[in-house]
Amino acid sequence: MPSRKQRRRRAKERRHEYEFVYVDEEGREVEVDEPAAQRKKTDGRSPAKTRAGRVVQPASWNRVGRRALIFAPLMFITIRLLDKQHTPIQDSILRTVFLLALFLPFSYVMDSMLYRSHLRRTGARRENGKKR
């Protein structure tokens, strides 16, 4: 839903009439019979406004595993850099495994919630056809 400021701007743009003109080789302004924007509308309906975002896919453990391969080294490096006591590397690896044990199920749950909200918003059905 557009904000109040966006609605005011849009209303202001609609209040003004714009002229479509071309400038020819000699520098004179030549009026256009029909602007290009109006030629596209053939039946008078405005085109459907959709958010052309990325496709939301159902949650999968494969995707969560790929995410773990990206975040595990980042978590390990962060733990090593923030460690003031310079503990052995085994302790840092153990902390990283603990963080991943929390992060991976949470990531899967967030993916499934995002997918379900996408389905509710679009009114689409699940890919596998099952209803929960």
CA-based gyration radius: 27 Å
Beta strand %: under 5%
Helix/strand order, N-terminal first: HEEHHH
Major sheet attributes: 2 strands, antiparallel
Helix content: 55-70%
Q: State the separation between the terminal residues, measured CA to CA.
A: 30 Å
Question: What is the molecular shape?
Answer: elongated
Count up the helices. Answer: 4
Determine the structural class based on helices, strands and strand pairing.
mainly alpha
User: Roughly what is the average pLDDT, rounded to an integer?
Assistant: 81
Number of strands: 2
Placed side by side, the strands forming the largest sheet appear as 1-2
What does this entry look like structurally?
The protein is mostly helical and 132 residues long. It has four helices and two strands. Helix 3 crosses helix 4. The chain is elongated, with a radius of gyration of 27 Å. The two termini are 30 Å apart. The model has no long low-confidence stretch (mean pLDDT 81).
Short description:
55% of the residues lie in helices and 5% in strands.
Reconstruct the topology from this structure:
Blueprint: H1 4-15, E1 21-23, E2 29-31, H2 36-40, H3 61-82, H4 89-122
Antiparallel strand pairs: 1-2
Helix pairs in contact: 3-4
